[in-house]
């Protein structure tokens, strides 16, 4: 796995590495309770919280366990969300996908465009066979999004994660390479 983010370009977006200079733009959406409520994160209280998140993005690349791209609009270059892979298991050719987007851009097809691009990248570049999405039952919009992109709902993982002082159930969604060929 590369030790830096490749740039991925779509019709409206540029997916690129997030830098510490993006922290203020990211604070705008990571401090929004509605954006982070299904991410297992408390809303960012200050820019230092965002710097910790960016540091995590950099660490998963260094460790080879994931990659995270900043979602930027071509016309502004401002980071309005992020998407990427975590818990990459090279031996098993699988990874978990994650994403979030500023509320100002919900319902415009941006998350779908960004996720579609990284799913293709994951299958083609990383040679993934399976991409998983773990989604809280209350996160209906993300469930609809991954279903639209071809993911299959496999089942409920009860008390799968412990975040913010509580156990969370998560739905397991997946897409395998051959699902895209059907």
UniProtKB/TrEMBL annotation:
> What PROSITE patterns does UniProt report for this protein, alphabetically?
GNAT
UniProt domain N-acetyltransferase: residue ranges: 13-177
An annotated GO cellular component of this protein is: cytoplasm
- One short Pfam name that applies is Acetyltransf_3
GO MF terms held by the record: protein-N-terminal-alanine acetyltransferase activity
Signal peptide (from-to): none
Protein name stated in the entry = Alanine acetyltransferase
**Source organism (scientific name):** Guptibacillus hwajinpoensis
